[in-house]
Amino acid sequence: MSVIPDSLEFKDIEFDDDRLNGIKICQKEFPGRKTQSLNEFKSMLTGSDGLVPCLDDNFLLRFLRGAKHRPRTALKRLERYYYHRSLHPEIFQNYLPSNTLSAQELHHIKALPYRAKNLSPVLVIKLGLTDFQRVTFEELLRLDLLVFETLLQNPVTQLSGITIIIDFDGFSQAELVKLVTWLPTCYHVFHVVFYPANSDLEELHNQVDPDYLPEEYGGKSPSSSLVDLNPIVNEQERYFREQLQYGVIK
Q: Origin, by domain of life (predicted)?
């Protein structure tokens, strides 16, 4: 029996829903295929040169699901992920929630309590709240990327992707371009809606039920309904500290 839309919270890990089953078919996640592709992927990584990868199943499934369970494509994406991190030590050398406390005080990134129509969690990034007198661009970006990676530990989110509302009202165009260029580079699962560029909000309402959107985006929910992601990210301090041991061999 399918669940009702109201129960599809952004933190849900698994549920019986026809849309989720449809996404699994689209991503070629058939019975037995997940195990087979995961084993093939691990075999490729065991013999990889110049790389010490994390071999945790859930971590690897992030890349396999985005590649529709094609191990070679997933391998290229994983290599790109690690090599990109090695090129930007100013962000990833101290890639821990505890190194984003100043950025967390801005409260510029939150989530809707319910998922979008495509079952993706919906993040709201209010760039107008940023203050580069208080926090560096690198720390701000570090926090955003940690949020993305935290949400991508969820198997449903690995399948559905993440919808991001980027509210750049009061933010410089140059910094916006700088931020957005990171999204496809590091991850491949984003549906991005810009505001106020799409001020008619039609595209946003096509993806997210207005009942769950804050009033400022043409919705019916108060801004106070947005989920504070700081505690959720901070709970992953140990996980991200363990991840620091993996990457490109220097």
A: Eukaryota
